[in-house]
Design a protein that fits this description.
Blueprint (H helix, E strand, L loop, with lengths): L2 H23 L4 H32 L55
Helix pairs in contact: 1-2
């Protein structure tokens, strides 16, 4: 961790804690509330910077690892049939929507004339 991030983290955490203590004693004081919001925002900015530092460090250490393709982007997972190019219910241009087929109804059985 660089010295700059360490210093910013310590300072912003201390300021946030101090602002919180002031605000908790007088919650109706609007200036104390605004100061606390500003301190929390600064703490978030430092935390974001720290996350970026971690990501860069991970990337530098793991250059040999391949990032796996997310399952929602994996083409091997898609199901294709002759009318659809896309599996998510979207159809390719020119393809007509097919209604789901229902089983055919059978005609009622005719009674034989001599069975009555």
């Amino acid at each position: 961790m660089s010295e700059d991030i360490k210093t910013r983290l310590q300072d912003s955490a201390a300021e946030c804690l101090k602002s919180y203590e002031v605000w908790s004693e007088s919650k109706k004081d609007s200036s104390a509330r605004e100061n606390l919001h500003a301190a929390v925002h600064e703490l978030r900015k430092v935390a974001s910077r720290l996350e970026i530092e971690l990501a860069v460090s991970d990337r530098d250490q793991n250059t040999q690892k391949k990032i796996p393709i997310p399952t929602h982007r994996d083409s091997g997972r898609r199901h294709h049939n002759k009318d659809e190019n896309i599996s998510d219910g979207e159809q390719s241009e020119g393809a007509e929507k097919k209604k789901p087929s229902r089983p055919r109804r059978r005609a009622p059985a005719k009674k034989a004339s001599g069975d009555e």
